[in-house]
Design a protein that fits this description.
By secondary structure, this protein is α+β, with helices and mostly antiparallel strands. 34% of the residues lie in helices and 21% in strands. It has four domains: 91 residues, Uridine Diphospho-n-acetylenolpyruvylglucosamine Reductase, domain 2 (2-Layer Sandwich), CATH 3.30.43; 118 residues, 2-Layer Sandwich (Uridine Diphospho-n-acetylenolpyruvylglucosamine Reductase, domain 3); 109 residues, Alpha-Beta Plaits, CATH 3.30.70.2190; 92 residues, 2-Layer Sandwich (Alpha-Beta Plaits).
């Protein structure tokens, strides 16, 4: 049964009002509604929305929810796509918007100490002033929070070279489901004492603990960068190029892919001068020292230019870089125009299996009569699979449901995973047993019970119901 604002116990609400001032607490359904949805198509009404400003307030709120068995849903800016911040069980939404106590850059140790309410872009701007960056760079960097990046293990194009949040986080301060403070990890580049709880919490989607501070590993900014665009006659040629590029001593800092359907979508939306016969495209970026960057870019250009390649363009100016990226950046608005309620999945397979994945997705599109547009981070084998449909059409919804089921089966047959960076949330949880065996699932649920004995932290997220 959902716990709405009206159903929250009176003494619980009274204690909320003592814990938070009027600028930190929403109780009116009109005000709360904006915190009941994310970028998925799911939404639900929270009973209350709280905006703690410090670690102690988070502890007290979690203890209160633990005591009253009230569901608590941690939330950043709601840019996730899997429904993980939708309060489906009602209860309280804990927004991290005002959790902005600390943003410190330690250049000597190449680290940053950050509160979860800062956006990814705010962190990048602060790090850049001292010659560094934090590698995770989701498309929504301007608005998504560091806390959300950690909760989802959200990465972005740079992960192909620099890794995800798990590889770029040294330690955390968090609050477990009974309100206890937990400190994990280290502030050094090495440390093997105890189990790695830091990596366990990252990507756990708020089901184990609420992160209130993170110590992040920073990377020095590269001296130079070069951008290339490669156009191919067929998917297989582009996929072979990806494998060849990833086998080079020089690792691209971005290797993005668009299939033929994606190119046609952009072409119909805006004529960007793509050559005839373009059935796949790669965007390739390489960074490094000023002394070696041109040689590195030339080598990658040679590798990308295989027998199925129509052309490879190496940008010479900032204007040319912007022009080459324009095709990729035009895709999202084009898709919103064509199918505003599309299904967006982010599967991943071994890079060598990309041809089978893309060709298999084309076959599923034809078989089920559902348009599928594919793009994403080719260097990781992480492809965003977009099913174009009108969910208000019952026939399309039924066909899309069967198509999505087949997509996940194909991905797992190829040794892949159901989610590369968007998480599981609520929308994928019923498919999780296909990827994880029963013993692994049982162990994970036991871990959840240790962290959150009364199951108040994001109940119903990540795993199917027993």
């Amino acid at each position: 049964m959902n716990i709405t604002e009206a159903a929250l116990p009176d003494n619980f609400v009274a204690r909320l009002k003592k814990l938070f001032d009027s600028k930190q607490l929403l109780l009116s359904p009109t005000d709360c509604w904006a915190y009941g949805y994310d970028n998925s198509r799911q939404q639900a009404m929270p009973g209350a929305v709280c905006f703690p400003r410090n670690h102690q307030q988070v502890c007290e709120l979690v203890r209160l929810c633990h005591e009253h068995r009230v569901p608590l849903v941690p939330r950043g800016r709601g840019t996730g796509t899997t429904g993980a911040t939708v309060p489906a069980a009602g209860g309280v939404v804990l927004s991290t918007e005002q959790l902005r106590e600390t943003l410190q850059i330690d250049a000597d140790n190449r680290t940053a100490v950050v509160s979860p309410g800062f956006t990814n872009q705010e962190l990048q701007d602060a790090a850049r002033e001292q010659g560094f960056f934090w590698p995770p760079d989701p498309t929504s960097a301007a608005v998504c929070t560091v806390g959300g990046n950690l909760a989802y293990n959200s990465a972005g194009p740079r992960a192909v070279k620099y890794g995800t949040p798990r590889e770029n986080t040294l330690g955390l301060i968090a609050v477990t489901g009974n309100g206890d403070t937990l400190r994990t990890g280290v502030r050094t580049s090495k440390g093997v004492v105890g189990y790695d709880l830091t990596r366990l919490l990252i990507g756990s989607e708020g089901t184990l603990a609420v992160i209130t501070e993170a110590t992040l590993k920073l990377t020095p900014l590269a001296q130079a960068k070069r951008t290339l665009q490669a156009i191919y006659r067929d998917i297989d040629s582009a996929a072979r190029a990806v494998s060849a590029l990833m086998a080079q001593p020089v690792t691209p800092c971005a290797l993005e892919f668009m299939d033929g359907q994606a190119i046609e979508t952009v072409r119909n939306f805006s004529d960007l001068g793509l050559p005839d016969g373009a059935r796949a495209m790669l965007m390739i970026e390489v960074d490094g020292s000023q002394a070696s960057i041109d040689a590195d870019a030339t080598r990658l250009r040679e590798v990308a230019d295989n027998h199925g390649c129509i052309e490879v363009t190496l940008a010479q100016t900032d204007e040319e870089v912007a022009r080459l990226w324009r095709t990729r950046k035009a895709l999202s608005p084009a898709l919103r125009n064509v199918a505003p309620k599309k299904i967006n999945e982010d599967v991943a397979v071994p890079v060598s299996h990309l041809p089978q994945l893309i060709n298999g997705l084309h076959e599923l599109s034809v078989r089920h009569g559902i348009g599928i547009v594919n793009f994403g981070h080719a260097g990781n084998g992480n492809i965003h699979v977009n099913l174009l449909l009108d969910p208000d059409d019952p026939a399309q919804s039924k066909a899309a449901e069967a198509c999505l089921d087949a997509v996940f089966s194909l991905v797992l047959e190829l040794g892949g995973t159901l989610s590369g960076e968007h998480g599981v949330g609520r929308v994928k949880k019923e498919f999780v047993p296909r990827e994880l065996d029963p013993k692994a699932l049982a162990l994970m649920k036991a871990i959840k019970a240790q962290f959150d004995p009364h199951n108040v932290l994001n109940p119903g997220v990540g795993f199917p119901a027993d």
